[in-house]
Amino acid sequence: MEIKITLQESSYSIFTGRNILKDIASFYNFSSHKVLIVTDSNIPSEYYSLIKEKINVVDTLILSPGEDSKSFNSYLKIQEKLLEHNFSRKDIVIALGGGVIGDLVGFASSTYKRGLTFINIPTSTLSMIDSSIGGKTAINFNGIKNVIGTFYQPSLVLIDFDLLKSLPQRHFNNGLIEALKAGYIYDPSILDLFSQDINSNLEEIIIKSIIVKKHFVEEDEKEQNIRKILNYGHTFGHGFESLGGFNDSLYHGEAVGLGMLVVSKDKEKLISYLNKLDIKYDFEISSQELIKIILNDKKVDGKYIDLILVDNIGESYIKKTSIEDLVSILEGGLEYVRRFRK
């Protein structure tokens, strides 16, 4: 299936299907271009070996897995590889991995010689549903998530559902929380699929979530207005993620789920969905520390922040919220969040 992202300057296609990685050469013209694959050590070698069989890959950079790799150090390793092989702006970097690899490689691609071709091949539910689409790239810095980044669209996104077979259950569940978010903000039919057997409906859940993201990205590519709605749950979620240390204590999707819970109108209904995805965290949450982190959020404007709210499922909106009101909302939601502590 082809889903087209139509933008003013950088339109591209997302191809979805099963066992389509073997056909990679048919989705893009790789001839006469150098190709670098960037991946991490959790990605099965059979995936990048298959790519190497089909197209001319000059090198593969294998990074450590996890949020620690979303750093300046990893960014510099990519730049060094590109320079080592004398890549031009017409050459290609393939991100093969989850959200960390996609965000990192997209950022590195956007800044190398002011931009070279970037292809995203997501291998997790999180990256298939959310982070591989829409052109947000970033690295973390000084304990703040995504604080340094750019908007830089991929030239192609290739979503092969068979790549999920190697994904651990917790990572699988982690990404599905972004699909829950898509259901809450725009398409309630996604929640109907969650109420049934998730595995049987997986491809439909992912495709519907992609279409939700497509809607908001096409309306507002640079997140000046309506695209901010995609940040539902993220204001508090990024804070929870920071408190957890960006490690195995709490993954991104899990943190977003808890962030959604803070602002949700019907918390018990959302808890029933989150329980199916087995979220647990193991650290202390201080409301004072959390607010301190949120004040560094790029969405803060003076004494206000744009908070995404959903009064009726599928109907979302942006509300300019004072920091005082934000503290009140947090304190009202933390008792529900703490139900998920180990």
Structure description:
- With 342 residues, the chain is α/β, with parallel strands linked by helices.
- It is 41% helix and 21% strand.
- The protein has 12 helices and 12 strands.
- It has helices at 45-54, 72-84, 99-111, 125-131, 169-185, 189-195, 202-219, 234-243, 252-263, 267-276, 287-294, 323-337, and strands spanning 2-5, 12-17, 35-40, 59-63, 92-97, 117-122, 136-141, 144-151, 156-160, 300-301, 304-312, 315-322.
- The strands form 3 sheets. A 7-stranded mixed beta sheet has the order 1-2-9-6-5-3-4. The protein has a 3-stranded antiparallel beta sheet with strand order 10-11-12. A two-stranded antiparallel ribbon has the order 7-8.
- A hairpin with a 2-residue loop joins strand 7 and strand 8.
- Helix 5 (169-185) packs across helix 7 (202-219).
- The protein is globular, with a radius of gyration of 19 Å.
- The N and C termini lie far apart (41 Å).
- The model has no long low-confidence stretch (mean pLDDT 95).
